[in-house]
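Final report, results section. Input specification for complex C-07:
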Amino acid sequence: MPMIEVLASFALAVGVLCAICGGLAALLILADGYFNDYGVCEIRINDDAEKCLKIEGGMSLLSALGSRKIFIPSACGGRGSCGLCKLRVTEGAGPLLPTETPHLTPGEQKNATRLSCQLKVRGDMAIEIPESLFKIKEYQARCEKVEKLTHDIRRLRFKLLDPETISFTPGQYIQLECPPYRLTSEPVYRAYSIATDPGRNHIVELVVRLVPDGICTTWIFEELREGDQVKLNGPYGDFRLDTESRNEMIFIAGGSGMAPFLSILKQMEQAGDERKCRYFFGALTKRDLFCLEEMRELEGALADFKFIPALSQPADDDQWEGETGLITEVVARHYRECSSQQAYLCGSPGMIDACIKVLQERKMPETAIFYDKFA
Amino acid sequence: MAPGVLAQDGFLGHDQRSLQEIVAEDLAELAAAEVSLAELGEFLDRIHQTADAGLETTCPMCDGALSVRLAEGMGRIPCPFACGFRAHKGIVHVQAGSLSHRLTPLQIHLIKEHGFFQGRGAPFRLSPRQLAELYRKCGS
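Structure output:
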């Protein structure tokens, strides 16, 4: 067979194959549009006729509510790993999904609690949302300052543009939207504690530690520039100072766990809080310490406050004369008994769990321990 | 197992083998290295516990043959076998001489409970041979 005929047969075969594949793809797209067209769905909230949403079906319940400015807490941005976006769905939820069950206790599964990031809106639904969540707003903001605090920690300052002010309680957190970039094709949200002086309600400050390969922190460290516009939503969370108590307070944090305490200490300063307060801050080496000057100023401004930094692995050239050891060991050295103190903890789950163990061994009641676990 | 909502890169990498084939071949490789799955599971647990107790500091293990450090992340990730286990996100950095490895709490669970070392090319795959070598560095 001449070469030209071989090539023509080959080209014909390729052409037929491409046509079949193209046809199948078109069929799939049409089928997808047909089978996944859920039309307009009605979401009734808290059996309140004024809180009834009409939403195009197909997206997750979390996204659907977010599109109507109803923000449900979600530290992982809808990836089903934090388990924070639980809601009661009393009608129209369908069967539990395998991606939900690991996050739900048997009791929650029984009382129709669902993970709103995993649940798709496929028809009319009735849901229950705590009234407090309706106060959560979305903010347009401009990044005013990116401050390098350590080799892997940045402080970000955002000026609020719309709305121009925020009302929050020191200790609460906010979600920052990371826009699509090389590590994500869709916006993702991450939760960060608010580090702002509560008297400055036109800005939001965050303290962020780089997570290697982390989607949002990589964006913050490599892409975010002063002047960029961002979206925030919040505030969320129940971690806050017990302002009724007069007991001595023990603050314990490490790394970016510093953030809520920057806000809480300013709150104490402005309220003239005279309680005894000891703040234990754990770091590996001297280069991991930050905000030392701010802490010294607060020691002068507050009636009975001491900042106690501790290094767990001081470098040879650190010339460190302060506390050393794991933060749990340092706290244990300072307190034989903690039955009359309160503790406020912020940091990694391991650190929080280890601190709770030490405090409870020293007779601190469970009700006197407040924490914000990065979990 | 495939890339998706729970794990951006999935657990199979570029491996073309079926899940059953991956598990069977890896368990055979581990057996050939003369380490049992129970021994390896106990060893990996010990690494995790040592690193966890270190609160992000670097901790020596096995008379200094290994050093381990846990970098904790936010959130939990459910086991893809849907067994109900939810692992804390985090990475245990293991240094064995000039070799460095990364282990995650979920990866340890997958190996220990499901004999699944993940597919070739998966970001957190460590082969049975690599782990058996690490095990031997600790004097078994």
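The first helix of chain A runs from residue 3 to 35. Chain A has eight helices and 17 strands. This concludes the modelling results for the funded period.
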